[in-house]
Amino acid sequence: MRAAQAREVIGARMRELRESAETSLTRAATLSGWGKGHLSRVERGLTKPSRGLVEWYDTTFGAGQALLGQFLDLEAAVRVGREMSLRDARLRRTTGAARFPVVAGGTVPVDHDPADCCLLMDEDPPDGTVVPCGQVFDKTWTVRNAGPVPWRGRWLTRQGAPGVAGRLQSPIRVQLDEVAPGADAVIRIRLRAPRVEAACTAYFKITDATGRLYFPGSQSSPLHCTINAVEWDARRGGPGCA
Questions:
Q1: Nbr1 FW domain spans which residues (predicted)?
Q2: 125, 224 in Cβ contact below 8 A?
Q3: Do 91 and 123 fall into the same domain?
């Protein structure tokens, strides 16, 4: 994942949390000690937030460590993408080969097309679904190939760590079927909810087999799954304290 896209994702989530708490930007600046202009730039994805600011939003607006988990996953995804691009750059310098094109500050698949586009049409279960702690479930996204390029040899790849305790666990990647321009595809991945109560999000991007992004910029936001894991009272058939 590119740093700019990670900033947009985490900034939008921070804004959602603040607005859900009915707190103005001015009030948030007063309470936090960070300037209003800085908070505005962070929420618009123009400036990367510090971990301290993310933790303040998480605690103040009741995200229950979910925002911090998202921030750390996105940081890890950006780091992986940067390291891959640096390796490609070293290869070009040592061999003179330019196998992978460079777009949006990093390398992309050899068949990358600037007109390529992916649209999210539907998803199930919806964000915010309550899931029993430790339960295995399937998440599906219906996406449309809205560009002129057939999708072949593409994968849905987890961004960030796929198996960290206290977060959603998933395979690192699943392969997509071939999708013609204008056609829809259903992408399915199996996840496991954390074994402790938590709100958590997992991010995924469409990549080639090596993990290089097909949509490094604004053509496609990350696909994500957000759930609330709760202890389940089997006797009552619903959420409850174990």
A1: 126-215
A2: no
A3: no
| pTM assigned to the model | 0.74
Phi, psi of 31 (to 5 degrees): -70, -35
Contact residues for 126 (Cβ-Cβ < 8 A; gap 6+): none
Q: Residue 229 is part of which domain span?
A: 113-234
For 83-133, what is each residue's pLDDT tens digit? 877 777 776 667 665 566 666 557 788 888 888 999 999 999 998 899 999
Collapsing DSSP to helix, strand or coil, 78 comes out as helix
Q: Residue count of the chain, please give it.
A: 242
Same domain for 30 and 122, yes or no, is no
Task: Classify residue 82 as exposed, middle or buried by CB count within 10 Å of its CB (0-12, 13-18, 19+).
Answer: middle
Hey, what are 130's tokens? Answer: 């309550």
Same domain, 215 and 138: yes
Q: Report the side by side order of strands in the sheet with 118-124.
A: 118-124, 136-145, 184-192
Cis peptide before 148 (omega within 30 of 0): no
Distance of CA 236 to the CA centre of its chain: 34
